[in-house]
Amino acid sequence: xxxxxxxxxxxxxxxxxxxxxxxxxxxxxxLLLRSWxxxxxxxxxAKSIPVASKVNILDAGSGFxxxxxxxxxxxxxxxxxxxxxxxxxxADCNAFFDKAGKKNVLFEKADLTSFTKPGQFxxxxxxxxxEHIAEDEKVFSNFYDSLSQxxxxxxxxxxxxxxxxxxxxxxxxxxxxxxVRDGYNIIDIQEKLRKAGFSSCEASYxxxxxxxxxxxxxxxYPILMLNASKLLFIILPFYYxxxxxxxxxxxxxxxxSNHESGTGLLVKAWK
Length: 271
Hints:
Layout: H1 4-14, H2 18-31, H3 33-47, E1 54-60, H4 66-72, E2 77-84, H5 87-99, E3 105-109, E4 121-127, H6 136-146, E5 147-158, H7 186-196, E6 200-206, H8 209-228, H9 236-255, E7 264-270
Parallel strand pairs: 1-2, 1-4, 2-3, 4-5
Antiparallel strand pairs: 5-7, 6-7
């Protein structure tokens, strides 16, 4: 299924005013389970930063700017560079963040396979990006070079345990057509990061059984509906009114549980 056209359609609807853009970010934070996990890790990282310290952050593959927006609101003395390969996303985000008065944020176009800023960033965030890039080891090496000493890389990506909603590993097709890989093996991604130079790595599964149920209710079924017809956008509020309590419960269960397997991976690596 083509996911990007759905994202563009939703972006146009919610980009009409700054209020709607902020509402869009809030809805994504509620509906996307990966956002729950990523924000939890970002808050934990922020608490480890001394109050007076200045930190530089890279949002590597910023998309709509959802996570850049969240990080810009953390109580940190931060400078955030957000990069993406799409010109329209960069222009759109720069315009919105400027209107919102976020002076510590800049969006730039960049290809992660060639982007490096040696030793500059204390944190690099990469959410749902690596599954789109074939030359992943080159990107991991660039991330390592761009981190400051003791800097942290935080990655959220599908796993090979049914990530991208693939369950038949021989003949299955990804729910998201734009992915170049259906997911990472938890050992494989850690080995690639160590090969890039990272001194230590931690990886854990997300989207366990409750998370998978929540994702189907909050994301998969609505996207399938919209992919069938944009007219179904009209009934989405009623759909979410019925399903949101269950989806939120499943997300909470996933966030505070340890999973032996799952369709998502949360990976942290340190220089």
